[in-house]
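Provenance and format

Records in this collection were gathered into a single text stream. Each protein contributes a sequence line and a token line. The two records reproduced below are adjacent in the stream.
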Amino acid sequence: SRLAHVTPVVVQVDGKDLMLSNAGDAIQGFDPATGERLWSVFSQGEGVVPSPVFADGLILSWSGFEAPTMRGVRPGGSGDVTKSHLAWEAKKELRIISSAVYVKPYLYAVAENGILWCLDAATGKPLWDKEVFVENKSTVPQPHKKNSHASPTPVSDGEKVWVHFGHMGTACFDFAGNELWKTQEHKYIPM
């Protein structure tokens, strides 16, 4: 596989540990006890960054920058299971650097353009999106050219979701997409 910057995750599937890893052009399942690759799904794109998310029996994954696509994949099988285990695919532009957070039944992700997305994890269908911050290049320093303000992963306490866009600010939303608060008071200077 090609370039990726993904932190793998270990989940329980049918009482067994399974290590999930996205990579350039692939979503892969490994036996963490032996390192054996059990199965893979083709997922075109290089430079993959977000870790996969395991949500109610589905692996939710993003491809890289060539063909941004989000996929819901059923774990299991052996070898190339692209045709048999792909539950859904969403090609709507949702390029993200951070990982997503799952709070049943929703998946929350922040996009590079300052948008918070809420998706139905079972289908990949976007439910809502909110423009959280608009970058003003005259007042906000530019991050590294290969990064974005949307690097931090959203967090949730099961009732609300918080997003942080670096020096652009931090905000809190309820699960219906209503902004509860937003601040740009926590400024810092990028190194």
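Adjacent record:
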Amino acid sequence: EAKMTATAQKAEILAYKDHLTLQEELQALSVEKRIAAIQSLASSAQTLLSAISDYNQAKADEAVKANEEALTTQLSALDVARNEELNKEGLTADQKVAIENKYKQKKYELELAEYNNTTKIKKKAFEQDKKMKIAMTIISTITGAISALTGMISSIPGPVGIVLGAVAAAAVVAAGVLQVSKINNTTFDAG
């Protein structure tokens, strides 16, 4: 009976060791799967952000075009009104100059309003694009840091790989922070 108990204990110990080994392998595998899932999610997020950015730019371009078309219509109507007023009988030269000046002022006001509206639209699109670029850079930085860390750990096992992986990940994060700072410092140029 003592032999059976010792043998059973040895079997239990071996089973427990096998269980621990299997558990470690499952944990390692699940970490790899988690990293792959995070990277896949990050890639999908970047694709989505890029699509949103493209959509925002297309809407801005559409609004700018509508402003330009509206200005063209308004300027044409203004020219018609100016010509009708100038073609009235009995106008003196001074009256014609006054009419020309009045319509030049109206034209200037219309063009200025269109420029201001277009600038507002373009600035909003610029700021949205800037936010999207920052978000995409942050996502790239995170996935790059994860890749640097896991790459070092997988190629150099043990504490040295972990330390080198942490250093590589820190370098990727530093580069990402620098890139975000550069994007953040860009300013809108109305052109």
